[in-house]
Structures are given as C-alpha cells and as structure tokens.
Fold this protein.
Amino acid sequence: MNFLDRLGKWVLNAVAEAGDFAILCWTALRSIFKRPFDIRNLFKQLERIGVDSMPVVLLTALFTGMVIALQTYSGFKRFQAQSMVGALVGVSLTRELAPVLAGLMVSGRIASAIAAEIGTMRVTEQVDALEVMGVDPVQYLFVPRILSGTIMMPLLVGIADVIGIYGGFFLLVNVFGENPDMYLNKVYQYTDVHDVTSGLIKAAVFGFIIAMVGCFKGLRTEGGAEGVGNATTSAVVMASLLILVLDFFLSKLMF
Amino acid sequence: MIELKNIHKSFGSKHVLNGINLHIVKGESFIILGGSGTGKSVMLKHIIGLMKPDKGRVFIDGKDVTDYTREQWFDIRRRFGMSFQEAALFDFMNVFENVAFPIRRHTRSTEMEIKKRVGYCLDIVGLSGNELLMPAELSGGMRRRAGFARSIALNPEVLLFDEPTTGLDPVMTDQIDNVINDLRRGLDVTCVTITHDMVSAFDIADRMVMLHEGEIVFTGTPDDVMKSRLPIIRSFLKGRICEEKTQ
C-alpha cells in the first residue's frame, strides 16, 4: 500500500508538471506576438544560445562524422562496399545524429544556464519585481530565449551537417587514402533535400524545447542555492529526455 | 484606497492569514508590524496581487480586484511601487539601467527624458554619481535605496516597502527612515511598510497594525501603541527600549 501510495503520488506529480509545462508553452507562444518587442534582449540571447554554442556543436559534429566514417569503413570494407561510407555518413548525420547530438550538447550548456539564471532571479525576488512593475516575466524572460533557441538550433545543425560530412571526408581521404570524388558523390546521391530539412525541423523543435525547459524549471525554482542547483540538473535531464522522446515521434511523423 | 476583507490564506495545513480586515486610507503611512513568520509579507503580496486569497476579497479604490486576471493586475500594478527586502535589483543591469527599466517598458520617453528622470530618482535617495555601479558593488543600504529609486521611477500612487531596514546598522536604518519620510512628503504617496523594527515604525508611521499568528491583534496610531497594555505590543516595545539602551 505504501509503495502504491508513493507511485500514485509520483504519477500525479508528473501529470501535474506535464500540464503546467504545456500551459506555460502555450502562454509563451502567445506572448511572442505581444508588444513591446525586446529586440536588444533577443540579439543578446541569439549570441549566447547560437554563436557561443558553435564551438562545442561543431567539434561534436566533426568527431561524430569521423567516427561514423571510421566504424563503417572497417565494416563495409569486408564486403567491398566502402564506397557507400559517404552515403551512410550523409544520411545518418543529416537525419539523426547532427540534430540529436547538437540538441543534447546545447541542452547541457543552455538549458542549465537558463534554469540557473531564471532560478536565481526567482529566489532573489527579481521575478516578483518584474511582476510588480507590470512586466510579464513570461514575455520578458521566456520569449527572447525560446525565439533564439528555435532560430539558432537549425543554423547550428546546418553547419554541423557540413562539418560532420567533411569530418568523414577528411578521415577517408587522408587516413585511408580513398577517392575524394567517390565519397562526395555518394553523399550527394543518397542524401535527399528531405533528409536535410527534416533534420533542421527537428533542430528547431529541439531548440524550442531546450529554451522552454530551462525557463520552466527556472521559474519553478524554490528555496535558495540548493533549489537553483536542483532546477539546473532537472532542466538538463528533462530537456535531454524530451529530445530523445520527441526525436522518435518526429522521425515517425516525417519518414 | 486599499481594503482587505476577511482574507484567509493557507499553505498546506499551515494557516498563515486568518480573517484579515484592514483599510488603508489615501496619503497615510501605514505600518504592518509583526514578528517573523506571522504572515506580513503574505499580506503585502495579497495587496499587490502576487497571491490570491483562499477566502475574502481585496478592494482597490472601491473596486473588487480579487479575481482579476494577470493582465488586469499588470495594469493596476503600474500605480504601485514596491521595494523588496533585499531590493531585488536586476543583477545583470547597472543602477542606471535598473531605475530606467520601468520607464523604458511603460513609457515612450526619449533617452534624454529617461536620463533626467533616473537622475531625479537617484538624487532623492542620495545615490547620485553611482549610476554605473552594478548591484553586486553596492552595500546593503545603497542597494535598498537603489530599489527605492526604481520603485518611484513611474510616479506611483502607492509605495510598498517590505522590511526596508532589516539587517541594517542603526545609522543606515535612520537614513532609510529619512528617505521613506522624504519620499512620502515629497511625492505625496500612500506608503505601506512591513517591519518588525519598532524604532523605524515610530519614525515613519501614521497608523500601525500588529499581526500575530495570522490575525490583526491591534490597530492604532503610534500614541495608541505606547499606551497599549497588550503583552505582544509590550514585548515589541521592550525590544525598542533594549535597542535604545544599546545605541
């Protein structure tokens, strides 16, 4: 009975949190179209979420492209199919690996930072101060962040696609001495425009989720420094899990 | 101007407010006294709509605002200025930007007008020349005065102060009390102050209420407080006598 009691409480809390998250998403989406538009804050967040995340995302893409090429080359070579490495790198990166891995890297970097920032504002009454001044915290704090996440993630993933493909190219051509034209021809031949656009759509959704989860967890922060720490950790966990779950459903929807 | 009728508020099984009734008149300096954890801040949050009562009604200028939406409250709050216990300055903005923030959000003032208004507000609280400092570079008293400056930036009709002198030394407490009195006289606003500091309360009050275990146990002028025989009032006054002896 005790176990069932706790399980019931956990389920109720989870459902309540999911409901709160959905309502806050809707409120934030509506707030995008409300005046005043805070362009200065938007550009600051574009830089922070997009430009500052570029090194970590590009390094991830470069080594992911190289490791796929490395693993598939040794496997494909056993049945003389090494020419197909380019096709596999191109399709797997654009459809899946670039958006998902970039999403996970950015969630570790940005969801935590947003949750810590808004969480600190919450526990030091800065969010209450916004409310008291007649400024909607959702509009002022959420909108620039979710817009930046949604705009910058596809751009990051687009660049990551190119870097990852050329990572594989570099390894095959310079380490294994394969024909450079063959690799790139297979990439172009097997990677459709739809593969690229579906990856970019996923990236936009992941960008929204990362920023939204960071804001949501930050706004619900309670207590002092410990509360901010908990919000930061749970923001990364929730954003990462949502990325993996949504990736499945988006893939099912688009392919 | 502000009226609370039979306000009840609980958090879980803990009853914080048990049937609060009070009426704050326009232009007066109203003090809410009480020890820690008696529900003073919760009461203030009901006045400004940051919390909704479980039972009871809140009236502002005779209008029942209890069930107002967040958007309706945003409009009402533009008439209020609130100064928080730890000032709640935005830590990513300097003093100038903090004070300019409500002006930028709610008016179409030019940069020149904003600069003039911010300069005026900082001058009133004695912080001229500190515009470029970040909140982390300010002392406790300076931070609170910067918070006062931000709260008067839009010429509010009502100023709310949440424990403005807690944790400050007696000299700084006196300075803050003077600033509150100057603001009240200079700007002709209604002031509602939460405090458990009797020295401050006597310095700035027209009328006081004492909150104890979620209920108002006393209402009156500072003179009424001095004459009161209520044990809770006497113990607060005793605290005052002790402080005077130590100064």
